[in-house]
Amino acid sequence: MVTLLALLFLCATDHASARHHGRAGEGAPGDFAYYVLSLSWSPAFCLSSPGSAECNGPRRYGFIVHGLWPQNESGWPEHCDVQRPVPDNVVQGIADLMPARGLVYHEWSAHGTCSGLEPAEFFALVRRAYAGVAIPRELSSPTQALEQPPAAVADWFLHANPRLAAHSVVVTCSGQGAPRLREVRICLDRDLGPRACSADALRGACRAPQVIIPPIR
Q1: Which residue, 76, 156, 69, is CA-closest to 108?
Q2: Can you give the CATH number for the domain in which 20 is found?
Q3: What's the confidence (pLDDT) of residue 7?
Q4: Each residue of 111-166: pLDDT tens digit?
């Protein structure tokens, strides 16, 4: 229970920190403009949180899904008034993309409830969104640390996914001095088609000249 509570707190504080430049607010389920698919670089997360579920199993992850976030052109809805738990079979069914139960529960509570979908429908949409994005060759299974400008990481995704719109990829980082790659966020319309990110989504972009990309171990 302590581990689960700690993970829930970590997910919530990480998310708040990553999006603090924008504005969250109440909203009606289904009332939003588009989605942001957030892919977290697991090797960087595991360096700072080695006790997490995704860091201790037999599988070594590259990108995992942090979330699929309903977004408005200005701000975004959170914690919509939907009282539906995530069934256990749904949690187990998304574990290959979101390996920590606490993350699944948090993402449903904070964001999935605003989608206007049932839990099973929402996490099926998460899987569809992830399946629609090709991971660049450079990030498929790096065995040594890379150091690149954030713009280069975004370009890798744009080249691997020609359908993506300009300004549809946001690279975020964390840490001081030599920041690490944290997440890649991809803006998609409500049908999961490509679209440009709004100003709120772009504000969280990494401003460092270079980011370190820890390898998959």
Answers
A1: 69
A2: 3.90.730.10
A3: 40
A4: 999 999 999 999 999 999 999 999 999 999 999 999 999 999 999 999 999 999 88
Q: Does residue 36 contact residue 185 with C-beta atoms inside 8 Å?
A: yes
CA–CA gap between residue 1 and residue 196 (Å, rounded) = 40
What one-character-per-residue DSSP string does 97-123 give? Answer: TS--HHHHHHHHHHTGGGTTS-HHHHH
Contact 164, 194 (CB under 8 A): yes
Percent residues over pLDDT 90 in the chain: 76
- The CA R_g of the chain, rounded to the nearest whole Å, is 16
Q: Report the number of distinct structural domains present in the chain.
A: 1
At residue 189, the 3 state secondary structure works out as coil
Angle at 106 between CA 191 and CA 184, to 5 degrees: 55
Query: Could you tell me which of 168, 45, 35, 175 has the C-alpha nearest to residue 107?
Result: 35
pLDDT-derived band of residue 18, with 50, 70 and 90 as boundaries?
Answer: very low
Q: Which residue has the tokens 């020609």?
A: 162
Tokens of 57: 């199993």
Going by C-alpha positions, the residue among 45, 170, 130 that lies closest to residue 53 is 45
- Residue 110's domain comprises 2-213
pLDDT at 124: 98
Using H for helix, E for strand and C for coil, what is the string for 190-208?
CCCCECCCCHHHHCCCCCC
pLDDT tens-digit profile of 184-203?
999 999 999 999 999 999 99
